[in-house]
TrEMBL record:
PANTHER family: EAMA DOMAIN-CONTAINING PROTEIN, INNER MEMBRANE TRANSPORTER. This is EamA family transporter. It comes from Streptomyces pactum. Residues 297-338 are annotated as: Disordered. Residues 315-338 have a biased composition (Low complexity). The keyword Membrane applies. Keywords: Membrane, Transmembrane, Transmembrane helix.
């Protein structure tokens, strides 16, 4: 039996609800923040020429650890659902991202990956039966433009295969996200077990792909071991547990726009650690992307939220002791429809 998704909280009316939503959003944001360190870890710690092997070690060991902790396996139809989500969110996503990274400049690949919030906003209609929101579409475009300003340089070139792979990776993750939101989690299954199912399924999908594409694994030294450990723990197990928990408790568009944090973290680390320069255009892009992330956490403006309350009467109202039942009923009806 599938548990329906948790009610989406758009902000609440009390401080407690706002703090709860902010805490869940911050915890969910850890995932794209950790994913943003992947470029630095890969280039500075891992052996070159084995990106799929890095993806495999990021997924499969973390999934097996999660299964050992939770000691919960799928049942019934969830074997197929977990496999599909694992392939979309992890197994198919990693090879497509790596193909895009190899055939495109890093900035172009990062900008294509930033199209994911747009894809989620479009998929929400057929998958989640939600009306398309001009608010989320507009801020999705703004966020993608902001990431482009941050990471695309003048030497950027477009390779057709790389562009298709980059957009395919964004679409794969967007579909996985929306299906995760639609199916929810089975009753009694926590986010650790749920993440373990998908990491294991994605890792098993990557196992033959990696063997065919890259052959024997590389030798692993101490620095590479630390890099793989970081990717598998912070960027794998912890990140995906928090990510899937956030998908279940937050609006899907609010979660999707958090992905924009990944290229921003990558660019920030490049400037802080690798000495790369961020000029005024890049800083403008940072501001635009952060504005899109913040706006994505807000509910779309509606007519009801913009309409003002009826102004109070200029004369103080006094209870009437002679009002008839019909006038009282009419007044109540008027208030109920205002």
């Amino acid at each position: 039996m599938t548990r329906p998704p948790a009610p989406e909280v758009s902000g609440g009316t009390g401080g407690g609800a706002l703090r709860g939503t902010a805490a869940r959003t911050a915890a969910t944001a850890f995932a794209p923040l950790a994913w943003g360190t992947t470029y630095l870890v890969t280039t500075e710690f891992l052996p070159s020429g084995h990106p799929l092997f890095a993806g495999l070690l990021r997924a499969l060991p973390a999934g097996l650890v999660a299964l050992a902790i939770s000691r919960t396996l799928p049942r019934g139809a969830w074997w197929g659902k977990a496999a599909a989500l694992g392939v979309l969110n992890i197994g198919l996503l990693f090879p497509l991202l790596f193909i895009a990274a190899e055939r495109l400049p890093g900035g172009v690949a990062g900008t294509l990956a930033a199209a994911q919030p747009l894809a989620v906003a479009l998929l929400a209609a057929p998958v989640l039966h939600q009306r398309p929101s001009a608010w989320h579409l507009a801020w999705g475009v703004a966020g993608m433009a902001g990431v482009g300003l941050v990471v695309i340089g003048p030497e950027a070139a477009l390779d057709p295969v790389g562009v298709v792979a980059g957009l395919g990776g964004a679409a794969s993750m967007a579909l996985g996200l929306t299906l995760t939101k639609r199916w929810g989690r089975p009753a009694g299954v926590g986010p650790t077990a749920f993440a373990g199912w998908q990491l294991t399924a994605g890792g098993l999908f990557l196992l033959p792909v990696t063997a065919l594409a890259e052959g024997a694994p590389p030798s692993i030294g101490p620095s590479a071991a630390l890099g793989y450990l970081w990717l598998g723990s912070a960027g794998g197990l912890i990140a995906y547990v928090l990510w899937f928990r956030g998908i279940g408790s937050l609006p899907v568009n609010s979660v999707a726009v958090l992905v924009l944090l990944s290229p921003l973290v990558a660019a920030g680390l490049g400037a802080a650690v690798l000495g790369q320069t961020l000029g005024p255009v890049q800083l403008l892009g940072f501001g635009l992307s952060l504005a899109a992330i913040g706006a994505g956490q807000l509910p779309p403006p509606t007519r009801s939220s913009r309409s003002a309350s009826p102004p109070p009467s200029s004369a103080p109202s006094t209870p009437s002791t002679t009002s008839s039942p019909s006038s009282t009923s009419s007044t109540s009806s008027t208030k109920g429809t205002s």
